[in-house]
Protein 1
Amino acid sequence: MEKVVIAEKLKLFSEYWSPKIVGELNGQHVKLAKFRGEFVWHKHDDEDEMFLVLEGVLKMELRDKTIVIHKNEFLIVPKGTEHRPVAENEVSVMLFEPATTLNTGDTESDLTKHVLDSI
Amino acid sequence: MEKVVIAEKLKLFSEYWSPKIVGELNGQHVKLAKFRGEFVWHKHDDEDEMFLVLEGVLKMELRDKTIVIHKNEFLIVPKGTEHRPVAENEVSVMLFEPATTLNTGDTESDLTKHVLDSI
């Protein structure tokens, strides 16, 4: 059992939209990711998804509004809700979601990551 | 759907060892808690537990070692592992654990909270 130092893990990767697994508990993954630009619209039919902003500003576009999430704020996107993360500048986030969650949900795209690295 | 501003939630309570529910996803609770002093030794037979330190320093005593967790670091304590959180000064933490998790695990004490408030 070892603690995880988030800042050290964030130094280990630079690619955007490619979550890395940094912890697992109760069938859930704790992931770190860096976002920049616009992701694809998608939803997760069976999984709620949590975005905790560590650095930067994340805009979560929903079909009816946009929620701006700053450092030390989080948003839980319920299952079945279409959403699109947008980051004008680089943002670092921590994600909590079931181990089964695919990053692009029901929208297969070039951004889809079927296999995630653990770091 | 609304974002959660962690700093604002932390202002809403001051009692120690009394986790507050600030989010729920996939059967898991996101909780905020403030610790100060020594908790009781306990374990959770069926639940892994995650401690993310937001402010202060948390010492997690295990039977064979102590892990010191600083701000922006986290520790996952696996199910069945005896542990005791200790905070010499006030520490604020975010917890992730199944909705079924009892704060003192298998050790009933004055510190046991059977019902948690949502804030």
Protein 2
Amino acid sequence: MTPNASALLDRLAAIVGPTGLVTGEELRGRPASWTRPAEPCAALALVRPRDTAETGAVLTACAEAGAAIVPRGGATGLVDGILSAPDQITLSTERMTAIESLDPLSMTMVAGSGVTIEAVQNAAREAGLFFPLDLGARGSATVGGTISTNAGGLRVLRYGMMREMVLGLEAVLADGTVVSSMRPLIKNNTGLDLKQLFLGTEGTLGIVTRAVLRLRPEPAGYATALVACPGVDDGARVLRAAQSAFQGRVSSFEGLWPDFYRLMTKPGRATPPLGPDYPFYAIIEVECVAEETDRFLDLLDRLMGEGTVLDAALASSEEQRQGMWRIRDRVENMNADGIVRAFDVSVPLDRMDGYVRGALARMAAIPDCRVVVYGHIGDNNLHWNTTDLDGPGNAAIDAAIYEPLADLNGSVSAEHGIGLEKRGKLGLSRSAEEIATMRLVKRALDPDNRLNPGKIF
Amino acid sequence: MTPNASALLDRLAAIVGPTGLVTGEELRGRPASWTRPAEPCAALALVRPRDTAETGAVLTACAEAGAAIVPRGGATGLVDGILSAPDQITLSTERMTAIESLDPLSMTMVAGSGVTIEAVQNAAREAGLFFPLDLGARGSATVGGTISTNAGGLRVLRYGMMREMVLGLEAVLADGTVVSSMRPLIKNNTGLDLKQLFLGTEGTLGIVTRAVLRLRPEPAGYATALVACPGVDDGARVLRAAQSAFQGRVSSFEGLWPDFYRLMTKPGRATPPLGPDYPFYAIIEVECVAEETDRFLDLLDRLMGEGTVLDAALASSEEQRQGMWRIRDRVENMNADGIVRAFDVSVPLDRMDGYVRGALARMAAIPDCRVVVYGHIGDNNLHWNTTDLDGPGNAAIDAAIYEPLADLNGSVSAEHGIGLEKRGKLGLSRSAEEIATMRLVKRALDPDNRLNPGKIF
């Protein structure tokens, strides 16, 4: 360690206290991330500030030492957004875990950036309220991490992404400046909405330390069905009809292509409510009270009469509902079949069918390539999962999935972010002028490129 | 006119064609804005580009000539956001009025920035869809103007502000660079969400030329009631109960304080459905189908049983519903009584009652001051209207309304913006660090301060 590095660590320890700084063996005992469990966390130190003031002091110290900072939330991201180098400081939000307040009348909550999404959900539920963001990593993903990645998940169709759930936030800039925008207001037109700078920018413009979250009324109940359709466009028509009939209360619409459906309903896995040979399946879930179930059944009947739906199964109990969701959610079934590489892209709904057909045709020509596709298609979001082949095979898969997106006005990352993993793909869904404009903002807020350097671009 | 100015006008005329440039008498025949009908538009010229490419060329020409640009949409803003100086170029979007496409399945529309909100609403309706943004100026307010001001209006509670209705947009930066982010995607996590730079920043960071708008299913119907409550906090409890009972489908919740209610229901004005002596009134509207009316009545009954509601009137026809809305909407009734100065602020819901009581008490001590208060309280948004007194009286009114906001975590502008009018108040709802951060972004995108200079700060 250089004398400068040593002086910086002393200064950081003085700010956060001796237990706030993790170095040496203890640091190497931590994995680099959830996707790299065998790789130790590479950093000069991991620093754990307790609040915004300590975070500000840490960033000021790093600025004066010229050290780079890599923020770290629940470490369950999928795009290598938190990987750090041996000369960098990793800043973990793990001690900022206070739920500071919850106002049931205004339906708002103030939480530290290290609070997990599950803890937010639970606190809301205890107050008779609901925090709609939900994703598989809810037990580890944090408020700060989901803000920095603008997380999506299972209910975006109805409630939006994390962007729509944050009323205000507090962030620390690269030079240690604390920017506090913690107003619990729905309306506040007083110039640039500063929180947008930190939503989805993966810690490259500032470190989020606290947020004011918007809560919602708890849903009164659900009607859930699995439908089979003649094609993807019919599935889109089902979605459209349900949105009209239930005034935007469709909370999930998950498209399942046949290979995915068959894989997830193999013997010993989820029980298949419908036969395996339809061209397209969708799980549709509507928020409604029990007395509206008849209207939901009428809708499905009408769609079957029109031929938009070929067959349908309604979940008549919570157990049946959970059974349907197991078809969608048991990612481990894909892993067991060796289908382990995950992709997350967006395509406009009216282009989706052609895109999937084209990409499947290209991948059919790749030796040993197995692929399944499914996704939150109501949000434009497709997930591909494929086998992990040797270099050239994987490169051919990547090309089949990513290359068409530029012409289709799609996105190389619907909800996972860019991180290090998708940096090379950014140009497929952002123009040179867009990237240049992002760089202008980055340089304005972090002129020395010390906040999560190398991520996104 | 200087030789430089003359050369710039020649160049602009060559870009937009002779009818695209308005100068001299014709320019002076146009009013400065809707709020200043007698004041002529002060500018070197008004330029009317037909599309993004022409807008880019205009901004490049102005950049090379060092000329400032003031953008102009429907000119019905309320904060002097479009006032220009005699040496500046005013850029009007009035020729960018094409609705380029509408996709009923994806529920998206591509529109030029000069399209009025009414035209967007009508085109959506013709396709069996719904564009939720609505405000009194719908016939003149434009897509570009409502993006630049992040307009709100009557349905924010359910559908959000303009920010939530824009999926993508195209903007021209100060140097003429065209930044096109026209993807019709709900999910697109590829770094900074660039459209946020242009939403609510009043044309200070770029000129919006086109947008991809998100449409919604047409509401199936409404249940509408006027309720009287013991106080503001009871009103908030009514809102909260209705949001739970109707799963977030409360589309409007308008608080009316007694002086406002009495003024709007004077003889010859709207018919009062309830007596004039209750402490607080609210119009509540829920999106629902006709068969849900009984549930709405049950809710009102329950709230009356609890004492949260003292009396209630349900609109039993569309005519009665319109009658209730006339109590809220007929601004001309205030003007007729000389209550002409309009204020637009935000306050957290749990602080609202105390704030209004305090401000009313201060204004009661100002000689000849008459004041009424009402607003979209579910969005935290209060509108004050007051008499127009001589200088010291108006200054005392301003102080009574604005000064408490800083300590209450409120906002000096809920939905109107800052413009020139509220520049001096910005510091009451933005910290020095927030304003400094906004300035960093402004300098990065417009280093010579030529885009709508002097607005916001």
Protein 3
Amino acid sequence: MSSEAAFISSLRALATHPAARNFEDDCAVLELGGETLVLTHDMMVEGTHYPPGADMADVAWKLVAVNLSDLAAKGAEPIGVLLGHMLGNGDDAFAKGLAEVLGHYNVPLLGGDTVSGKGPKSHGLTAIGRATHVPVPSRTGAQVGDALWVTGELGGAMMGLEALQRGESGHTAYSHPVPLLTEGQALAPHVTAMMDVSDGLLLDSFRMAEASRVSIAIDSKSAPIAAPEERRMEALTWGDDYQLLFTLPAGEEPPVPATNIGQVEPRGFAPLFLDGEPLLNSEGLGYSHN
Amino acid sequence: MSSEAAFISSLRALATHPAARNFEDDCAVLELGGETLVLTHDMMVEGTHYPPGADMADVAWKLVAVNLSDLAAKGAEPIGVLLGHMLGNGDDAFAKGLAEVLGHYNVPLLGGDTVSGKGPKSHGLTAIGRATHVPVPSRTGAQVGDALWVTGELGGAMMGLEALQRGESGHTAYSHPVPLLTEGQALAPHVTAMMDVSDGLLLDSFRMAEASRVSIAIDSKSAPIAAPEERRMEALTWGDDYQLLFTLPAGEEPPVPATNIGQVEPRGFAPLFLDGEPLLNSEGLGYSHN
């Protein structure tokens, strides 16, 4: 086990409170005074999650959007966010982007911290939401016989990044992901399992299968992609799309537009079967968590 | 106004929700389901908040302790924390220190994120607490005629850092600050204003006076210090002590050990009077916020 994997394991060993579902992979879900709080924290680091010189307004949008997407996958309604921000070049743009995304989703900034530092900038966001349906959906609930569904198209962020790299301007699915809050709330009462596709459809499906102790079979051709057909596999392994991946009992139609891309089977030889081929480990199915 | 000050102002302009008391300077206080939540987020950056090569177990302790201290100043009981952590050298020690401090204060790790990055490491922590008394104390409530009190001694962190710099080992007030959770909860029903002394007694008193729109008069000789007498002024302007600074109506005795170091006066010529001398601006009274 790498030292990073060992470290994350040690954090998971610490995170044993019932509210701590699965450190890093899942939101915390906390019962409090008759409400159910959903809490998530994601960081973005210059050079890792965005290139040096990126438009900091886009970084602010994405920082908020990816955290709200975690709430969306829980069917939660955002209450507010706390920001941790390293000061630096582009702060004016960052403030503008932050105001834009918080205004767009009507989410208040509740507090936070600004710090000075040398070297690459880092930014953290804690999003706090209120569950609109209990039990709160998780990635662990997929049942044998369920159908696997995904909202929207995969690969949009990949195409968006390439457009940015070609020097095209404007908002793309890469720079301006859209957290599916309304869809998540509509789905929450119906799904047996749900998560957002942050690291690639195949990797996230693999994780859902592992968490639910089932196998998931995906028909790659059925997945809608926002990329040329010859890049289908890339689209299914690229991350950052923030679509919702969920399971429903067979025969049930989702209350929001989505595509049936596979089904849940008894745990077999591998967690994931792609067009009938077993995928035994998650290597190469998406991009690394950090 | 510097670009950093402008940025922080723009965040404050965004943080207008009633729960967002004063961005960065104060915890968020959120009514939810009959409970009152207190939320805070502080970051620590290598090279800014701790020297490269520091014992990462100490960094983990301090990261948690300074956030719990924010909860202490609200009389809040911790519910849990979310961690944002940049992976790197010393992660084993960090995990050990984190387990130690969370175990010591019986606070669960609820979730978070780990990230890779090049350059100085940064770490963020969000602490979530439940108010034990409402209204939740704030720095804005000091009333003319109140007495000003502080728990413990000032300057301990300064002496602790110097001990570390001399190569002495072991826990110091600098490396292992103690959040005064029990004291904060005992004080909350009695105080008119309360905050923790994170950036220096004089600077934080100045801020309390500004927030409460009063003047505060401090008798420097009356403040207990954990340093040689000739370093009294340094002890009163050094940060990181995490004592509780609070005001009580005149004649009232605090329920925990503390020292009366001054009083609250009508807003006069300056926010702060030190031994009768007006201190008009906060320059030099403590250390900078970031």
Protein 4
Amino acid sequence: MPLHPDRLLPADPATRAIARELYRAVADLPIVSPHGHTDPRWWGENPAFANPAELFVIPDHYVLRMLVSQGIAYEALGIGEGAQADPRTIWRTFAANYHLFQGTPSRLWIDHSLEAVFGLEQRLSPSNADAYYDAIAEKLAQPEYRPRALYDRFRIEVIATTDSALDDLRYHQMAKDSGWTGRVLPTYRPDAVIDPETDGFEDNLDRLGEITGCDTGTWQGYLDAHRSRRAFFKSMGATATDHGHPTPQTANLGAEDASRLFDRVRRGKASAEDAERFRAQMLTEMARMSVEDGLVMQLHPGSFRSHSPHVLKHYGRDRGFDIPVPVSFTVALKPLLDVVGMDPRMRLILFTLDEATYARELAPLAGAYPALRLGPPWWFQDSFEGIRRFRERATETAGFMNTVGFNDDTRALCSIPARHDVSRRTDAAFLADLVTSHRLDEAEAHELAPRLAGDLARDGYRLNAPA
Amino acid sequence: MPLHPDRLLPADPATRAIARELYRAVADLPIVSPHGHTDPRWWGENPAFANPAELFVIPDHYVLRMLVSQGIAYEALGIGEGAQADPRTIWRTFAANYHLFQGTPSRLWIDHSLEAVFGLEQRLSPSNADAYYDAIAEKLAQPEYRPRALYDRFRIEVIATTDSALDDLRYHQMAKDSGWTGRVLPTYRPDAVIDPETDGFEDNLDRLGEITGCDTGTWQGYLDAHRSRRAFFKSMGATATDHGHPTPQTANLGAEDASRLFDRVRRGKASAEDAERFRAQMLTEMARMSVEDGLVMQLHPGSFRSHSPHVLKHYGRDRGFDIPVPVSFTVALKPLLDVVGMDPRMRLILFTLDEATYARELAPLAGAYPALRLGPPWWFQDSFEGIRRFRERATETAGFMNTVGFNDDTRALCSIPARHDVSRRTDAAFLADLVTSHRLDEAEAHELAPRLAGDLARDGYRLNAPA
Amino acid sequence: MPLHPDRLLPADPATRAIARELYRAVADLPIVSPHGHTDPRWWGENPAFANPAELFVIPDHYVLRMLVSQGIAYEALGIGEGAQADPRTIWRTFAANYHLFQGTPSRLWIDHSLEAVFGLEQRLSPSNADAYYDAIAEKLAQPEYRPRALYDRFRIEVIATTDSALDDLRYHQMAKDSGWTGRVLPTYRPDAVIDPETDGFEDNLDRLGEITGCDTGTWQGYLDAHRSRRAFFKSMGATATDHGHPTPQTANLGAEDASRLFDRVRRGKASAEDAERFRAQMLTEMARMSVEDGLVMQLHPGSFRSHSPHVLKHYGRDRGFDIPVPVSFTVALKPLLDVVGMDPRMRLILFTLDEATYARELAPLAGAYPALRLGPPWWFQDSFEGIRRFRERATETAGFMNTVGFNDDTRALCSIPARHDVSRRTDAAFLADLVTSHRLDEAEAHELAPRLAGDLARDGYRLNAPA
């Protein structure tokens, strides 16, 4: 029985009772998932998942990295040349090492998924690994376990994917055309046509020109191409853009300087400094376009992607080797904020992996600039302790209304209800603490709980706007 | 009934009982307020406050920034060209948005002020906004609500203001001459004649020369002018100086280098690097003078003042747009500490907005150098969670005796008892946790509570010295 | 009665009951102490400790710095020219100021030592200072209070010292030769022959050449000399090396660049930049040798040693004036990790004094790279709050298995059982919280507690390998 009904609620009995009521009131609310990485093909083609290993192990970089950190080879997890091809063997390796996840959110998510999605109530272990494999595999073959059925079963109200600027969004179109009523929104993620240090950057810009009919050989044509793609994404339902830059540096160059910088970048002549300046300038350009077209802007800075060249070369990207670096926003964001920070039409949602910024910079910034909102804990911090630290450090300065609820930021479909459940429980626990310490009335906590569970995300991402 | 008698005390019943006793023992102790920003005119002229909006909304940058961050214009809050002129309308806007302060210290302070100062026991809301406005306005017209009466009612024992080096301290003199028995001390804050990047810096130095009769055209004359002003401030009761530098950088240049640097600065030829070096050098000069004249030195570094040029231009300074930056003390303070760090006559109180420095640098520094003490959480952190984090991170390395109790650091008169109350409750909760976990005897906690509530401030700021 | 049986356990009664059981199960387990600074002479010669002041006050930099920070002169503590020579007078000074340690781990350690080692159950105070002095002094004269007897009484299973690369390990040899069964391991700490900024660096390299017969005038000879010393240390039982660099910077220069850099360093021509690059390169060289010889590598970066030149000059090193600086590992460790990070033979244990790195960098790195493990909280953080913060911030991302249990890192012999006791209690409290919040089953917590108390240290430091 891994899933206790009181999990993550406060230890003190009186506080726990308050938290239980708060949680009960939001436990079954629909899921609003405005930022994530589910595969659009799932929604367009609604395929069956292949097997338990491909559902739980291979695509989850949290799972991979923990196993690898303890000496298990990627090959044993089905990745790389000569990798293990038998999914059952991979699953057994996973089960044999499931104890490694003690104390981690992965364990909470997987326990929750096994029980809530597949009805498997004992903790995964070597002794039940085969039986669980069979049970899951059998269910994956049933229509009730295809993506769209899970969407309904998870009570997802809306879910956003994250899509390359060059993507034709065919699966989004397919989902629409199919008559399915699920709401799946693309998100404009133009990193590959903005970051000059991306592999194939120049080809990407050629491609961007072909797709849009704009002359991406010139600065103005390049900006027009972005406008064109943003309009297309918006027509397909997008309400937001997302930017995964190494730093939050922004710039606001004069038109001529920007144009000259673009020329160097376009001709592959960009120095590392040029590349950083170009990314910086483009954040401000994206912000200007957001003011025009109303797309909410998201910034996810401060991750050193694919830190191990060995892992990158042999096993690829998103294998668990993206490592955070220190980040500071105050000076870095100023050029952008000087342009759009006070503009009521602008909305920029800030994320961080450097928790030192919560109380020091992010809460003070979002607690002042009308354009800013704080995204929930991202990635390594979308966990009980992580969400707790976020609330404790951000709330006193930014309040609740400058935050945008929770988003699951995941490519692991079955973990979505589990993650939102962790978020709702952690917020219920936090609110209950405020009530017990008489910082908040119980009635206020009951007003806030559903806001944190959904309304703030709907509002923050402008999801209520007519489609 | 917003003010529960157990607010901010621990959830665990046994711990709460201990905390309640600790709090009870200090709740009514006099307020020692050695650092703050009340208006000296209040103490000199003892005027009536104009209206509720001017008391609670317009001067409080915490209140302003939260309202602005949610899209309310400064103009609607009575600030800027063409601003709303009717204080009742401003008050209504405030009341209509009072929910934005849920979970923030502003809410605790304002709830406390409304109840404890004005006897208004329901939470502020649109429905009682007008009645509250009338009730407060009526009281503000009474002599019992003038500043000096509030000083007595709040049981303030001593309060320090923060004053420009160029200030003639006329209101302090007026307060003395009036025969009023309140103790209001000026604090020497020479930023405007030390920071070459201040607007009007050269004029300020001319003015400093005129006031002191020293030749502020030379390095030695300039230093003498500081000595003269410090002596004047001291004669008016000052026990401390305060320095609001962008960084904690210090320097200890040779006499010739310092003199040459001053010459560049004096002639308006200072580069940004010169300006930083000059501020750095002046911290060490101020420290040397502190050794001579015994004034306690305070350093408040790490705030990017007036981050938004738009807000600065249209609405002025201190409107909620001062944003922290990362700070490191260890290397930056070394030049100064090499000079005065081991000197028993020196006292330097360090403040920070970057909580990462508490355990990493500030507690180790203050737990070693006899010259150093730790100021309480400053600004965004003078809150329940903020004080808690300070105690948890600083105490194990610096102990209690290297801290200087609480100071309210506010320009909001009515929030002073509320802030000290939050501090006393939070410290009672922290001490009670130490008792419950048997890290401290209950008798020791009862000895410590009044020290944290007043004695450490009296000692830290040398307030017990004969006036 | 300073030592309450429930000290450091959670306040909530149900959680405390769980923690109590967890603690009871590990309280009496043997002590594994794989990193520390006890004096090898104690183990070789087994001398009596001279007096209470030399046992508790003079060698403990935590005790010294706190007393000094409050204005007590080193001289009064028996250190420096013309220092107090009477140990009883020093002890009285300590006792008179024992309240300064309220809320600090020093207080917990000393209370514990006095009671558990000397049977003194009242808290130290001026009134019992003389009686305590006599009682301790009397016991120190008894054979039961000599180091080896204390080793047995403390149930130490193995203890590592930290030794210069130039040390002949004579006391380790003496301990072996004596037939004593205690297990005392040296640790290879080559800072003095790696850091070009060490006083006497060139002489040290000459000496290294003499000892090893290698030509330390050449890069290859110098590396061979390290190999030789490492082999010697290993033959004497060492399982680990330790590196106390100012920063975690690593480098991976080509052979020629490295050789040229060595030449500059060897001839005393190294710039500050060269020195940093040389230290950086040597971390990678040490890592390569660890892959060859299997010695576990430890890195302790980020301390500004002997911050006060006055203290260094008059009172020496390790007097409480080592102050942390900000640290970042992600970029700094990359050159080393590119070489050995994925190698299953490599083990690098990372320590930090900058807690901002726990969740941001260390847990993500150790939760991915098989070569990495996280050392316990170091120095200022080996305390209740410090260990707690470490577990809360590291566990969710790195799990438990990427940590290496506790080590006491101390030169204070009597504090060793006290420190391990604090660690075991704090971990019991943390595990109990996980159980109460249903993040862990109680049975799992009971499996984990002894791992945290010993197994992870045995495994992490490869202490189970045949001697």
